[in-house]
Amino acid sequence: MNSYERTYRAGRAVCAWVELVAWVGVFFGAIAAISGFMSDGLASLFSSSLVQQETPFLLRIMFAVPGLLVVWGGLRTIMDVQQTKASIDTAEMTREMLTLARAFSKNVERPRASVPPSAHPLQIRPGDRIKIYKGKEIKKEANGVSVDGVVFPNILEAERYISDLRSK
């Protein structure tokens, strides 16, 4: 198998750094979410008495939300980094395929024409069909072209005649 060359070193280095920072963010965000849920946080400020009370569940969830948002942002960043890495890999593989295709095409013999080109252009005889225009056949005649037996000096006149028939 051919050797595979990895390029885009700067892009790969930036991806590795951003992914590391994102994983650190996920870790600290999870710690913040857990500690926000477990602690009273700012609950003592909302308390009307100085007596310690159980923190309501909804308030605990509110204290965990910032940490959960950091976790979500970190995971989203990791997903974006992995998508960027996949794009870099796709660019490298495309370059490799192009290199292989060029090498292969140099080794393949080109097909040769089996019939030599004619020295004389194609001869159209009277009665031969030249083309079909809007469903009508235009034929070659000795003194021009014809459509349904009506003779015209050139193809444009025959096409105009067919168009007029269609519009009626």
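[next item in queue]
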Amino acid sequence: MSDPNQELKDLILALDKKLDGFDRKFETQITELKNEVRLVRIELEAKIDLSRSELEAKIDLSRSELEAKIDLSRSELEVKIAELSGKMDGYSKRLDQQEFVSRGAILALVVGVASGFIKYLFFTS
């Protein structure tokens, strides 16, 4: 019969070789997984950068469209304000003329009433 210590050593050596094989397999699989993760990360970063660029371009386009609309509205409002200002000047001139006429009419009415009253008091026979 063979030596039991030798058999144990042989078994331990065989088990050690198998464990080394598993270690190598795990290391290669881990390395492959790391490489795949790197590739996926690079692809995702590229997609994110592309999406970010597209989004920034859309935002810039929308911003420029909105600024153009705001400028157009602003110019339209300025034109309308100028028109209203001209109309208000015309109305104020008309009101000034009406006030002058109204004052003249009231003055004529007061003078007429006063002269009638004076005539009634002093020249009645």
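[queue empty]
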